[in-house]
UniProtKB/TrEMBL annotation:
Keywords: Glycosyltransferase, Transferase. One of its GO terms (cellular component) is cytosol. GO terms for molecular function: ADP-heptose-lipopolysaccharide heptosyltransferase activity. This is Glycosyltransferase family 9 protein.
């Protein structure tokens, strides 16, 4: 999802730019949903069989691509670009894989001084300049623009599935992480929801719990804890694939999660987001910032000395900050 601003940059520079993406099969549904992508090419990955690797090389040679932009350089992809005879190959100047690229950009991402999507955008802008093109001047969220009727369709679907009031505000909460990052525990999310609900009593939000594969039981348990505490809470029914799950998030008025994929999907949709991050340098709120508008995002993490100890986050204070911030958005009628 943090590549979508890059893809928008490449496509908006010149509408006739043909943008293909090389992705693994598990992210292909989202790649196909991306409005800035013309073509999706499946990558068999490092463990892919030799026949699949040969087919990929043959396919790339046949396309006669003008340029290869690699956001995360690996030896296999770099060597693939050389063998596919792609004349312009650009990547970050990190790791020894850079020897396969004839254009490199020094970034030092390990310093985590910028958001990941900003580092990615720098590469896109460098590539466009190499191609003699001018990067678009007005590049702003949402990076996944959807027509208003899509949001209404998703809200109507959930309303019918769960029998809930679509006129009330819906807070989506994703307590899973897929193992990608440390997160608040289920009990801590319950504590946060209780604190926040008390501050939003006049709004009476409905809590909707989302879950990825294997996270359903955790979400069901959390929903029950919230109901036992007097909150109106439900788990969003499962969706058949990643794209339909992602589109479901468009129904949210507010999205709360750890630093994980669904949070970044919500960011691309320019939803108001609240993220919980560890404090270590490689995983800070700055480095993995969502790509929604600045006024649409709020982030919390432990003090720097606590690194990954998410117990150190003061959830009472966080709830107060979230309530004040979100009420200001509602008062401005800024909810999409």
């Amino acid at each position: 999802m943090l590549a979508w601003p890059t893809l928008a940059c490449l496509k908006l520079a010149r509408p006739d730019n043909h943008v293909s993406v090389l992705v693994p099969s598990y992210t292909a549904p989202l790649a196909r949903a991306c409005p800035w992508v013309d073509e999706v090419i499946l990558d068999p990955g490092d463990a892919g069989k030799r026949d699949a690797q040969r087919r990929l090389l043959k396919e790339l040679r046949a396309k006669e691509c003008d340029a290869l932009l690699t956001l995360f350089s690996t030896p296999r992809i770099g060597w693939l670009g050389v063998r596919a005879r792609i004349p312009l190959r650009l990547a970050p100047a990190t790791k020894w894989a850079q020897i396969f690229y004839n254009r490199r950009v020094v970034q030092r991402r390990s310093h985590s001084r910028k958001p990941e999507y900003r580092y990615n955008l720098e590469l896109a802008e460098a590539l466009l300049k190499e191609l003699g093109q001018t990067p678009p001047k007005s590049l702003a969220p949402p990076y996944w623009p959807l027509p208003p009727e899509t949001r209404q369709t998703q809200r109507q679907r959930i309303k019918e599935e769960l029998g809930i009031d679509s006129e009330r505000c819906w807070i989506f909460l994703h307590a899973g992480s897929g193992g990608s990052a440390v997160n608040l525990s289920r009990e801590r999310y319950a504590e946060l929801a209780g604190n926040l609900a008390a501050r939003l009593a006049e709004i009476r939000p409905i809590w909707l719990l989302t879950a990825g594969p294997g996270e359903e039981d955790n979400a069901d348990h959390l929903a029950q804890i919230l109901r036992d505490a007097g909150l109106d809470a439900h788990r969003v029914p499962p969706r058949p694939n990643l794209e339909t799950f992602a589109l479901t998030l468009a129904a949210a008025d507010l999205f709360i999660a750890g630093s994980t994929g669904p949070l970044h999907i919500a960011g691309c949709l320019d939803l108001p987001t609240v993220g919980f991050y560890p404090a270590k340098r490689s995983a800070t709120p700055l480095r993995w910032e969502t790509c929604n508008r600045a006024e649409h995002r709020l982030a919390f993490s432990p003090d720097p000395g606590s690194a990954t100890d998410m117990q150190k986050i003061d959830l009472t204070r966080a709830a107060a900050d979230i309530a004040a911030w979100w009420k200001s958005l509602l008062n401005e009628r800024d909810i999409p």
